[in-house]
Amino acid sequence: MSTVDQLKEAADADLLQPSSLDARARRRRSLVLVAGLLLVGTIALIALVSLAWLPYDPSDTTGNRLESPGPSHLLGTDRLGRDLFTQIMVGARIALIVGLGAVVVGAAIGVPIGLAAAFAGGWLDDAMSAGMDILIAFPLLLLAMLIVAVTGASLLTVTVAIGVSVSAIVARLTRVVSRRVLAQQYITAARTSGTGSLGIVWQHVLPNIWPTISVNLGLIFGVAVLAEASLSYLGLGAPPPNSSWGRLLQEAQSTVMTAPLGAIAPGVFLVILVIGVNLLVDGLRDVSDPTLVRAR
Amino acid sequence: MNLLEVASLSVTSSDGVARVRDVSFTVAPGERLGLIGESGSGKSLTAFAVIGLLPAGLAASGSILLDGTQVVGTAEKRLVPLRGRVCAFIFQEPLTALDPLMKLGRQLAEPIARHQGLRGADLKRAVLEALDEVRLPEPERIAESRSYEISGGQRQRVAMAMALACRPRLLIADEPTTALDVTVQSEVLALLDRLVTERGMTLIFVSHDLAVVSRMTDHALVMRAGEAVERGSIAALLASPQHPYTAAFAASARRIETGFAAAIAQGRDG
């Protein structure tokens, strides 16, 4: 074999390697996306079905106490004889509503504040950033508990409380990302052509920060779902008949040795939703982020 | 009346370092002025100060009268109407001067819509006309592209179309061809020259390259270390520089040119 052939072969190998890596990485990423879609889709489907149909009334005693799983009660019953699967279905609805609502509230408060701080600069930015840092210094759950304790627990107040608690995180992220965008030359170019501040925000800043912000809102959704479950577990969540997964966990606590399924089932569903959301967000980011595509 | 009157302009950073010191010059309507100097001489900062867009942490003092409006110390809100209409900018690096996420057609439509109040099909036609005017082939395709999908020379033409969209009277070109390769550079300069002439625009051409400046204008202000050193016709600056720095600058430019000529001659002979 001549040296030239060897060189050629080496070059071919070099050329082939990245593309095969490429394909493998792409497969792995789409796998992540599909897994996330499946997990979240399952929960979303359960929540949607629960709006139209439930096996039983969630607050009715329809069987014996702590029945084992069987054909009439898919996951058995709780200590009051209520069907556990029915309550899980209602819980899925609550988890999604509170999670989405909290993200919307958090974004509605956090994004404008972050944008304003990034735009203002100077002492106003310093003051707003200090406010965000103080809010972030409070543990998320403590802040939400405080708000719920003051306003009283309902589905709405819990949602708003978690939303307000995460808004500082959203605001700080928005501020950092917006500052990076504002430093770009296309912003200066738009200014030199006479675009006003509002136009800069709508046309250039928001579209350019959105990929980063949306991915993080997805992660915050997972945090909000966990916060809702924690609040319910502590008795500060939405009151009955809203059978939140957190409250199911708390109610199953006293019988966990005799009927472990009562604690395991809501826990597993909670894990499925949170892991599903994280995988989904990861997959979506990898698919949509053009810089990752080019960096390969 | 002069279109631009800069009087004892200084640009100072927040830590007190003067980046531009006591620069004064005037530009009459229809005039073309070159701003020459090495990098760091303050020529670009001077240009940005004219339109009130200094980078954060830099402050201007002195007086800048742009079409009769004082720019120094004036609120942003009152400067916005001047930008694009009275004075527009072309940047050195067209890739970073265009929003990567926005289709070029939409980006160009924004100032056109604002300036001419067009919408819908009329706006679309105006955008394609603007792209056609800067001699871009297939304006429809360019309008549907994003900045990273077209070549550097095409990007600079799009950026020129954007700068010209509001029919500015004064065009400031900040090293517009430095990032382009030589053949493209020559085409873009020819286009710029033609557009400035056709529209009777006033031009400030910022560059470190004496040869490029001399193609665009015969009149230049030489800057060095934040100060205006000398102003005059380029022929005079080359032939009888009044300031030692101008002499050195001209000499180095000439050296490069003779060096090129020698290299070319050598290549031809060998």
Oligomer: heterodimer
Derived from helix and strand composition plus strand pairing, the structural class of chain A reads: mainly alpha
Measured between the Cα atoms of the first and last residue of chain B, the distance is 57 Å
Figure out the total of helices of chain B.
10
Over all CA atoms, what is the radius of gyration of chain A? 25 Å
**At the fourth CATH level, what is the homologous superfamily of chain A?**
MetI-like
- Secondary-structure element string of chain A: HHHHHHHHHH
The tally of beta strands of chain A, per DSSP, is: 0
Helix content of chain A: over 70%
Q: Any idea what the shape of chain B is?
A: globular
**SSE string of chain B, helices as H and strands as E:** EEEHEEHEHHHHEHEHEEHH
Reported for the largest beta sheet of chain A, the result is: none
CATH architect. name of the largest domain in chain B: 3-Layer(aba) Sandwich
Name the average pLDDT of chain A. Answer: 86
Which stretches of chain A are poorly predicted, pLDDT < 50 over at least 5 residues?
A: none
Largest sheet of chain B: 6 strands, mixed
Major sheet: arrangement of strands of chain B = 6-7-8-3-9-10
Pair with the most extensive interface? A-B, 19 and 31 residues
Radius of gyration of chain B over all CA atoms, rounded:
19 Å
Helical element count of chain A? 10
As for the CATH topology of chain A, it is MetI-like fold
